[in-house]
Amino acid sequence: MSVVGSQPADGAVVTSPPALVGGYRVDLSQPFSQAPADIVAGGFQVNGVSATGYTIVDADTLQFIFSAQPVTAQGLQTMTLASGSLKRQSDGNPLQAWTASFRYDLLPLQVTGALPVTGPACSCRSPPCGSISTRR
Predict the structure, then answer these.
(1) Residues 120/122/123/129 CA torsion (nearest 10 deg)
(2) Averaged pLDDT of the chain
(3) In this structure, what is the dihedral angle of CA atoms 33, 38, 39, 42, given to the nearest 10 degrees?
(4) Which of 21, 22, 27 is nearest to 81 (CA)?
(5) Cα distances (angstroms) measured from residue 2 to each of 26, 77, 86
(6) H helices, E strands: number in the chain
(7) What are the strands of the beta sheet with 53-58, ordered from one edge?
(8) Structure confidence by residue, pLDDT tens digits, 69-100
(9) By Cβ atoms counted within 10 A, which residue in 42, 46, 48, 123 is the most buried?
(10) Cβ–Cβ contacts within 10 Å for residue 132, how many?
């Protein structure tokens, strides 16, 4: 059994930290055992901070709960789910370890304009024949 999706998604850019309750979610490849002894909430971490609880969404989806915000600064954030934190419902085999990352950026980098706007493509020679303006 493995993680096949998450919220925030691997590689996503978010403009505010995810909510403490319901902001972190994992989708699994197969149904997991819903027995409390087979679910280790603290096996899910964001930036090394362990989840304090969980909510079962459906047979193959969990949301994790934090008592304090694990995202405290802008930049790259790392989510991990330790091997064995969950067990597959069908045979009790443990979850494979998983890692994903997302970026927290209040004002994501955006292209606000480019030159030339229209016309033929230019080659990359000196001096440059165009420019790109960005906003942070």
Answers:
(1) 160
(2) 89
(3) -160
(4) 27
(5) 10, 20, 10
(6) 0, 11
(7) 3-7, 21-28, 61-65, 53-58
(8) 999 999 999 999 999 999 999 999 999 999 99
(9) 46
(10) 10
How far is residue 72's CA from residue 125's CA, in Å, rounded to a whole number? Answer: 43
Sequence letter at residue 35: A
Please name the CATH architecture into which domain 3-106 falls.
Answer: Sandwich (2.60)
State the residue for tokens 């480019």. 114
pLDDT at position 80 = 98
Q: What is the pTM of this model?
A: 0.79
Q: Please give the pLDDT value at position 26.
A: 97
Domain locations in the chain? 3-106
* pLDDT for 108: 66
CA distance linking residue 128 with residue 54, whole number of Å: 54
Residues 17/27, Cβ–Cβ less than 8 Å: no
Query: Cα–chain-centroid distance for residue 27?
Result: 12
**In 10 A of CB 94, how many CB atoms?**
14
